[in-house]
Specification:
Blueprint: E1 2-7, E2 9-11, E3 21-23, H1 25-38, E4 44-51, H2 62-74, E5 78-85, H3 91-104, E6 109-113, H4 119-123, H5 128-136, E7 140-143
Parallel strand pairs: 1-4, 1-6, 4-5, 6-7
Antiparallel strand pairs: 2-3
Helix pairs in contact: 1-2, 3-5
Length: about 140
């Protein structure tokens, strides 16, 4: 099973760098849901997708480390890799990138946390979920 997990990282404190950032609550809910629903089947591959900007210097695998930590807590054996989207100024570019990853990566399911103003809200505004479902025939799960 190959899951695509787009996620947000936001500042959680005023200090910088790594200790000041964490996965948003909506993204964490999506990760936990994905592991709960899909984690017991074994052979779980996760592609984590994050927005990345050159103005903030974050450790390369900050989000991946947090997702792996959640997998360990949940007792799930998952191979987690990361894909960064660097064109943070263009939501159209982000939507295209998600569609391209789904097409290239043999993704079985897309799981995203959803709340107003979240990564999912920006990435999936408009018809992106419909396009994934219709053009790529991949289920999309939005976790509130």
């Amino acid at each position: 099973m190959h899951l695509l997990l787009p996620f947000d990282i936001v500042p959680v404190e005023t200090q910088v760098p790594q200790s000041a950032f964490g996965v948003t609550p909506a993204s964490e809910r999506a990760v936990r849901y994905a592991f709960d629903v899909f984690g017991s089947g074994g052979d779980l591959q996760v592609t984590a997708v994050e927005l990345s900007t050159e103005t903030i210097s974050l450790e390369e695998n900050l989000g991946v480390a947090e997702i792996r930590s959640i997998a360990d807590e949940e007792g799930v054996d998952a191979d987690v890799s990361k894909h960064s989207v660097t064109d943070v100024g263009s939501m159209a570019a982000l939507r295209r990138e998600i569609l391209d990853i789904v097409e290239r990566g043999d993704v079985d399911t897309v799981v995203m946390g959803y709340e107003d103003g979240s990564f999912a809200d920006a990435a999936f505004s408009g018809s992106t979920p419909e396009r994934i479902l219709e053009e790529r025939a991949v289920p999309v799960v939005l976790v509130p």
